[in-house]
Design brief:
It is built from 7 helices and 8 strands. It is of the alpha+beta class and 168 residues long.
């Protein structure tokens, strides 16, 4: 199961290169994921995405036959900034960037969807500050981000929200 921290999926679901395409399809449906890193003896060797599997009919073939191989992967080192990740996603027109260490061991996965989610959360928090909500509510409340957006809509009168939108 994936563990999400600050825009990075830590310990993403992975498969070895020998996994069959049929088994990978079952795995992606079970966990509702569209891309799976391929790891061999702790080393990242590829990734299989929904695009790779879209028209695939050879369910008994290994994923190594359809994966994007190591030499074509788009990766960042641990600790890379959001700007670098967004630039790579945009430049390569991809949905996922793999996070690796110096030994090319997988350390995480960043998706365009997760980045957008983080940006939305920042945007909502900024709006909370702009409408003068208490600092504790904006940053430390257990419902920050999406939940904060709902709380803002519930606690701020419509004319104040419209005023904030007009002044931005």
């Amino acid at each position: 199961m994936k563990k999400f921290e600050s825009g990075v999926v830590k310990d993403p679901i992975t498969v070895p290169p020998s996994t069959t395409i049929g088994d990978l399809i079952k795995l992606t449906r079970q966990y509702n994921i569209s891309g799976v890193p391929v790891v061999d003896k702790n080393e990242l060797v590829g990734i299989v995405t929904g695009r790779d599997m879209r028209f695939e009919t050879r369910v008994d073939a290994p994923v190594s036959e359809i994966m994007t191989p190591k030499d074509r992967l788009v990766t960042v080192r641990e600790g890379a900034g959001r700007e670098e990740v967004v630039a790579l996603l945009h430049k390569h027109r991809i949905e996922k960037v793999l996070v690796v260490n110096d030994n090319f061991e997988l350390r995480g996965l960043i998706t365009a969807k997760d980045i957008q989610s983080e940006l939305f959360k920042d945007e909502v928090c900024n709006l909370g500050v702009e409408v003068c909500l208490a600092h504790e509510m904006v940053y430390w409340h257990p419902f920050s981000g999406y939940g904060l957006g709902v709380r803002i809509l519930g606690e701020v009168k419509k004319e104040y929200a419209d005023l904030v939108r007009l002044t931005r």
